[in-house]
């Protein structure tokens, strides 16, 4: 293991209730999540000297972190607001880890919260999305599912993936959510339920798509040295990688292989581990298809093999790679990638109750966004205290 | 005006994109060509995505291509499209190489397949813009060409 690997840890995780929270503002959700993460670590809000944020998506704001930090009375030593779609959370965590390791801050809060379910509808935001480069909005290619559908359709075509293989991802993650007390959707889902769900943008059905949530989430980082004295076992950051295919769907290679292939290679190298060493994966599941391609990009299965792997139970608890063990964006909550990292930390602490993966020591998380443009990978390991 | 009367979102006219939209207004599909390395590209960019030169020009494309991927959109994410679902948007690989994302019109969505040959048509979006859309290749010319807007 080289350099920064293992020197920074996630020491606190926190979130709000998830679901329909009418009357809650995005700011209030962010503040509550931050408080919960700080409390989880046994620290106080005043200890936070690094603030790392993503703006609420339904009301995109420039300089978001300044507005959140002001409301908490923070005077941070390091401040960063980033916008990389679904890769933002892990990118912020990586930036925070670098800042901590460089001595530029000591306790970093990585925060998100939105009232996308009951707050202001995001019609205007959608119309703005990708302006300047995305003239296809005028053709009605609007919203994540419609854009993702173009990649999913090609992936199915090249590898002969079936409806039921997509459905296996949705059904498995819903089962995991049913074991997760805070998950937004806990009712069981059968394959028939999946197949009967309405088309959003073919080949994607409603249950292929991330849910919409009100909710906030936060992870707290500090040095692994300081982590030893804190309330919870630390999750050591042993591997980090980013890669970006900025031409996204303009390059025909990027429909069936994402930048995750490159990002994970770097993260594995930093961590000194490979796919066979991963005990649980928490993958960015904005869509069922995204999970399948990421499994291939990360080397868990051969190209084109992810659909069969999912259908054979590979992603389930007790399967070869228990994945999105709290339900992911498809069923737990849509807090744009924070949920994946929080669940990985809980698995490494051994505190995931009914959904605990026995002996989980190494976890991998993915963040993926910008319609195949951005990707970030995080490899975490327990600190032996759990 | 309520949000439910929003017009369709417009493309963006800029230094980079203006030649493309001047083309569609004249029933021409144009692609950007790098004078340094000959790379052909869409969308319009401020530099060549292959060699990074900014010495760029525009050439007329044939308007023929094949469907690389597509979606049938059933859920209207924008109220201006609510009356049009289900509709087809495709990534069309032009014979010249670049991919253009655009509607396929005058077609039964169930008939659209990857690999299908299509050809360009031009449909007026609003006072300012004409869109390049596609129809199945060999479609009868009755609705071909610039029909002044049938939206």
Overview of this protein structure:
The complex is a heterodimer of chains A (386) and B (151). With 386 residues, chain A is of the alpha/beta class. Chain A has two domains: 8-121 and 213-227, Thiolase/Chalcone synthase (Peroxisomal Thiolase, Chain A, domain 1, 3-Layer(aba) Sandwich), CATH 3.40.47.10; 135-211 and 235-382, Peroxisomal Thiolase, Chain A, domain 1, CATH 3.40.47.10. Chain A has 13 helices and eleven strands. Chain A has helices spanning 26-41, 64-71, 88-101, 123-128, 144-159, 163-178, 191-196, 224-227, 260-271, 288-297, 306-311, 328-331, 338-349; strands at 8-15, 50-53, 78-81, 108-115, 199-202, 204-205, 214-223, 235-244, 280-282, 362-369, 374-382. In chain A, a hairpin with a 1-residue loop joins strand 5 and strand 6 (204-205). The longest helix of chain A is centred in the first third of the chain and has 16 residues, at 26-41. Chain A is globular. The model of chain A has no long low-confidence stretch (mean pLDDT 94). With 151 residues, chain B is mainly beta. Chain B has a single domain (11-140), classed as Beta Barrel (OB fold (Dihydrolipoamide Acetyltransferase, E2P)), CATH 2.40.50. Chain B has a five-stranded antiparallel sheet. In chain B, a hairpin with a 5-residue loop joins strand 7 (117-124) and strand 8 (130-136). The longest helix of chain B has 8 residues, at 18-25. Chain B is globular, with a radius of gyration of 16 Å. In chain B, 34% of the residues are buried. Mean pLDDT of chain B is 89; it is low at 142-151. Classes of the chains: A alpha/beta (386), B mainly beta (151). Chains A and B meet through helix 4, helix 5 and strand 5 of A and strand 4, strand 5 and strand 6 of B.
């Amino acid at each position: 293991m080289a350099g920064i690997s293992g020197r920074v840890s996630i020491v606190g995780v926190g979130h709000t209730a998830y679901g329909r929270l009418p009357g809650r503002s995005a700011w209030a959700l962010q503040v509550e999540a931050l408080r919960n993460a700080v409390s989880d670590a046994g620290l106080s809000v005043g200890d936070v000297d690094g603030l790392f944020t993503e703006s609420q998506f339904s009301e995109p704001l420039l300089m978001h972190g300044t507005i959140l930090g002001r409301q908490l009375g923070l005077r941070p030593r390091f401040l960063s607001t980033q916008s990389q779609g679904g890769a933002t959370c892990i990118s912020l965590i990586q930036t925070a880890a670098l800042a901590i390791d460089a001595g530029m801050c000591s306790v970093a809060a990585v925060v998100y919260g939105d009232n996308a379910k009951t707050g202001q509808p995001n019609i205007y935001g959608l119309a703005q999305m990708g302006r300047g480069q995305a003239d296809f909005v005028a053709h009605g290619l609007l919203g994540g599912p419609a854009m993702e559908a173009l990649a999913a359709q090609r992936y199915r075509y090249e590898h002969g993936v079936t409806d039921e293989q997509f459905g296996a991802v949705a059904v498995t993650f819903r089962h995991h959510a049913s074991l997760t007390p805070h998950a937004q959707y806990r009712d069981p889902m059968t394959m028939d339920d999946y197949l009967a769900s309405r088309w959003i943008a073919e080949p994607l059905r409603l249950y292929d798509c991330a849910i919409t949530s009100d909710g906030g989430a936060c992870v707290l980082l500090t040095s692994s040295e300081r982590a030893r004295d804190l309330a919870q076992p630390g999750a050591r950051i042993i591997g980090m990688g980013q890669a970006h295919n900025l031409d996204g769907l303009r390059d025909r290679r990027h429909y069936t292989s994402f930048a995750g292939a490159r990002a994970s290679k770097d993260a594995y190298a930093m961590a000194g581990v490979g796919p066979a060493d991963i005990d649980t994966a928490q993958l960015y599941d904005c869509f069922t298809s995204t999970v399948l391609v990421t499994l291939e990009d990360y080397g868990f299965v051969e190209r084109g093999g992810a659909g069969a792997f999912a259908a054979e139970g590979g992603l389930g608890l007790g399967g070869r790679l228990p994945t999105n063990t709290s339900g992911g964006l498809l069923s737990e909550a849509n807090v744009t990638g924070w949920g994946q990292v929080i669940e990985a930390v809980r698995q490494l602490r051994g505190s995931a109750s009914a959904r605990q993966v026995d002996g989980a020591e190494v976890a991998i998380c993915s963040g993926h966004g910008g319609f195949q443009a951005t990707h970030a990978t995080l490899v975490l390991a327990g600190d032996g205290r759990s | 005006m309520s949000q439910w009367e929003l017009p369709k979102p417009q493309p963006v006219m800029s230094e980079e994109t203006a030649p493309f939209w001047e083309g569609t207004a004249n029933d021409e599909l144009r692609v950007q060509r790098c004078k340094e390395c000959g790379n052909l590209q869409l969308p319009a960019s401020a530099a060549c995505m292959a060699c990074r030169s900014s010495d760029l020009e525009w050439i007329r494309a044939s308007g023929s291509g094949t469907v690389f991927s597509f979606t049938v959109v059933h859920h209207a994410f924008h109220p201006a499209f609510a009356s049009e679902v289900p509709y087809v948007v495709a990534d069309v690989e032009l014979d010249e190489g670049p991919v253009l994302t655009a509607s396929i019109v005058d077609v039964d969505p169930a008939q659209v397949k990857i690999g299908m040959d299509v050809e360009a048509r031009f449909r007026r979006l609003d006072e300012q813009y004409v869109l390049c859309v596609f129809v199945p290749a060999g479609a009868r010319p009755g609705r071909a060409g610039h029909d002044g807007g049938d939206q």
